[in-house]
Amino acid sequence: MKFGDVKIEAIKGDITKQDDIEAIVNAANAQLQMGGGVAGAIHAAAGKELAEETKSLAPVRVGEAVVSGGHNLPNKYIIHTLGPVYGFNQPEEEFLANCYKNSLLVAEETNIKSIAFPAISTGAFGYPFEAATEIALSTVRDFAKEAKSIQLIRFVLFSEKDFQHYHDRLNSIK
Ligand code: ADP
């Protein structure tokens, strides 16, 4: 889908294997350390220098985003954001929207042209997938209208079912 000059797309895949993307987003923990899920995969692929670098950037608050280098990943940058724990960090809609908004703001400050997001908070943090998808897509769409440096926003979904859901919703948003 095209919103203004920005292309928004969804693919099924692994966030650590996005060779053509300048910055990937990490669904991080507050301490910006390894953990499980997306954060575990990103730290494993980036190497231990990432944890060294992010030590000085931590802790981050819910909804906040910070940028680091990509280290051994194919990406120049990693943008780390802390999603809300569903049912705990409230209002969770606002916190989740802030994750997407602040990641995109940091990307623009860094003059990044392409960015890939995982489905933040929908794993260990328990956010229902459908509700999280609506927030992700509407927040990114609204941002795209006023984007400056960003030209491509990609959602990377881990399962076929999650990908299909994004694909369907992406085709219906205006
Ligand atoms: P959170 O703690 O924010 O819930 P998780 O890492 O537990 O984050 O999960 C977020 C989402 O990312 C889930 O939908 C999960 O299926 C997906 N996911 C897990 N590993 C990867 C990966 N390597 N690439 C893309 N998505 C992933």
From TrEMBL:
Q: Which InterPro entries does this chain map to? A: Macro_dom (IPR002589), Macro_dom-like (IPR043472)
Residue ranges constituting the Macro domain according to the UniProt record: 1-174
Which superkingdom heads the taxonomic lineage of this protein's source?
Answer: Bacteria
- Cite the SUPFAM superfamilies for this sequence: Macro domain-like (SSF52949)
Per its record, how is this protein called by name? Appr-1-p processing domain protein
The organism named in the record is Marivirga tractuosa (strain ATCC 23168 / DSM 4126 / NBRC 15989 / NCIMB 1408 / VKM B-1430 / H-43) (Microscilla tractuosa)
* Highest classification ranks of the organism: Bacteria, Pseudomonadati, Bacteroidota, Cytophagia, Cytophagales
